[in-house]
Amino acid sequence: MLRTMKRRLVLTALATTLAMAACTGLAPRDPLQVTVGGVEALPGEGLELRMLLKLRVQNPNDTPVDYSGVYVNLDVQGRTFATGVSDASGSVPRYGETVIGVPVTISAMRMARQMMGMMGGVPADKIRYEMSGKLNGPGFGAARFRSEGELTLPTAPAATGRP
Questions:
Q1: How many CB atoms lie within 10 A of CB 127?
Q2: Model confidence over 103-130: pLDDT tens digits?
Q3: pTM higher than 0.85, yes or no?
């Protein structure tokens, strides 16, 4: 009986120590800042458009963020427009940034739906977008990100009346 109690006490102390050590690794982290750094055309297949979305990832934390896999979802005017995944791996340095390329796909149906939505209402000079996704990290799960804003569409030059 005494032996069983000692064993339980030692196991409880060990479990408590391990739990406390694990919690120190869960210090609060500021969220990653992710913006679109560029877009390049890729060859499409069939009725789809493919682009390489370059994500600029900034890490405002004192520790680097290692990642192995990226997912991104791009909504335009409140509707899913493009999605993509990449098995890219690397590290975003502490108080640093890196650019990660993610190929995204836009289906012909999504493009048509977006065009119909834009034509059915008041002409828009701005397009609202929202981007979300995650960087999968070995050992820490996923660092999720979200970004939103408006893009101003270029305006056509005014007619001068000259040929």
A1: 15
A2: 999 887 766 666 666 566 555 667 788 9
A3: no
